[in-house]
Amino acid sequence: MSVIIKPMENYLIGHVLKEYRTRLNISQEEISFDLCAVSTLSRIEGGTQIPRRKLVEALFSKMGMTPPSSGIPMNGADFKRENLEYKINGMVASANFEIFDLLKEYKNCSDEMDIFEKQFYIFYEALAENFKNHDDKNTLDKYVEAIRFTVKNYELDKLPVARLLTRIELIILNNISRILYSLGENGKAISLMEFLRNYFETGIVSEEEKANNYDVILFNLESWYGLASEDEKTLELCEIAIDSCCKYGLDNLFPFHIFNKGCALIKLGKIEEGKKSLEHSFIIMEEMKKYDDIKQGKKWAEENLGLKI
Fold first, then answer.
1. What are φ and ψ of residue 2, in 5° steps?
2. Could you report the per-residue pLDDT of 174-202, keeping only the tens digit for each?
3. What average pLDDT does the structure give for the chain?
4. Are the CB atoms for 137 and 183 separated by under 8 Å?
5. pLDDT digit string, tens, across residues 205-217
6. CA dist list (Å): 140 to 12, 135, 161, 174, 253
7. What is the torsional sign of CA 296, 302, 307, 309?
8. Angstrom distances, CA of residue 223 to CA of 10, 140, 261, 291
C-alpha cells in the first residue's frame, strides 16, 4: 500500500526521480511500463504519493541507478527485508546457496509481500533449490513465474521487447538463458544471451552492473560458441571479454577468457599462439590457486585438442 503524504515531505525523492528521468530523455510510459500506472508515477514525481521501497528501487534501476538512501519511508518489515536482501545477495555472490532460512524469514515478515518482493523471493528460492536438486525444468518454470511479475508478457519463444529493464530482471533473464542451455535449448539460450549482451552494450546499465554481470554474459556466449565450433565468434568475444576485465579490474573469469581464446586460436590453426594463451591462462590460475581448474583445463586440452601442456 502506498503512503500519501504532503508534497513538501516527499519533494526530494519525487524531484530526483523526475530530474534523472527527464535528463535521460525517458518518458513516464517507458519507465513505469509493467511496474506501475503512469498516474501513480505522476503522483510520485509530484510529491503527493510515495511508493514502497521496492518500486522506488525498480524505477531507479531502470535508469541504471541506485535510489537515494534517504527520502523513502520504511516500516519495520521494510527495514528487515532490505537487510535480508543484502545478506542473501552477499551469500549468493560468494557461491553460498544455503539461503533457505533467510528466505523463510523474508517471507514471514509481518507485511504481505508486494510484487517486487515476491519476485525476489521466488527467484532466489528457485536458484537455491536448483543448486541443491538440479531440477532444471522446475527451476525454469519458477524463473518464468518470477520474471512475469514485472515483464508481464514474457514468453520463452520470444525475446523481451525493447524496453528498460531492472537489475533483477536482467539477472533472472541471464539465469533463464543458462537453464535453457542446460536443457538443450541452445538456440533459444544463445538468442536470449545475445539480447542481454546487446542490452549491456547499448542500454541504460550502471558501470557497477556492467562490472558485475557483463563479463559473465560474455563468458557464457564465448563458451557456448566454442562448443558449437564457431571459433571466429568465440575469439571475437574472448578479446572483448579480456578488454572488459582490464577496464573494470576483474580477475575472477580473466584466465578462463584467455583459456577459451587459446582453444579458439588452436582450432583456427594458430597453434603456437594458442598454446601460449593456454599456458598464460594456467599461470594466472596457479597464482589464483585454482588448481582444480588447471587440472581440468589440461585434461580438456589433451582430450579435445590433442595437446599435452
1. -80, 155
2. 999 999 999 999 999 999 999 999 999 99
3. 92
4. yes
5. 988 888 889 999 9
6. 40, 9, 20, 12, 25
7. positive
8. 48, 21, 10, 20
